[in-house]
Each structure stands twice: as structure tokens, then as C-alpha cells.
Design goal:
The chain is of the alpha+beta class. It contains three helices and six strands; from the N terminus they run αββββαββα.
């Protein structure tokens, strides 16, 4: 039993990290002055780059559409590690 406990104690701990959630806004005039909550995600912007923490589980294209509805068009978008392609961004920005 002690051998088993020693084996678990020696096992490395793997840290899980949350993949980034980020949007780059196309129009600087649409950058919010304050933190904004969209679908539970707390968005904060510096310049035209916005990052978020938290948020509900949803597909990245849907999250993008929700952000575009509030902030305007985006030139880059990633949601919890999923990066949208140029084609997906074009659809999101419609």
C-alpha cells in the first residue's frame, strides 16, 4: 500500500490551461470603454484587441456572431482555443 501511495505522490501533475478567447475589432470606434459581458464571457479590450474569460460552451462561429452583434466586425476571432478561418470570419461578419 505504501508503495502505491509513493507512486502516486511521485507522479507529475499536469496543469490544464484554458485556451485563449480573443477578438480583433475592425473598427476602433466600436471598442467598448468598459468590460462587457456576452453570453457569460467577460470581454476586456486594449486597443482593438479584446480578450475574454469565462463564457458558456458554444461553437466558436456562434460566439463570433454574438460578439460581432455587440462590437461590430472582427478581423480575427478565437473562442476557447478554436481559431476561425478567413472564410468563417466572412460568414461571422455578415
Amino acid at each position: 500500500m505504501l508503495t502505491l501511495l509513493a507512486a502516486f505522490a511521485a507522479a507529475p501533475v499536469v496543469a490544464q490551461s484554458t485556451a485563449p478567447t480573443r477578438a480583433v475589432l475592425a473598427d476602433a470606434s466600436r471598442v467598448p470603454a468598459r468590460a462587457t459581458i456576452i453570453d457569460g464571457a467577460n470581454w476586456r479590450c486594449e486597443g482593438q484587441t479584446c480578450t475574454a474569460s469565462g463564457g458558456v460552451d458554444q461553437p466558436a462561429p456562434r460566439a463570433c456572431r454574438r460578439v460581432v452583434a455587440r462590437f461590430g466586425a472582427v478581423t480575427e476571432f478565437s473562442w476557447k482555443g478554436t481559431v476561425l478561418s478567413g472564410e468563417q470570419l466572412a460568414v461571422c461578419n455578415r
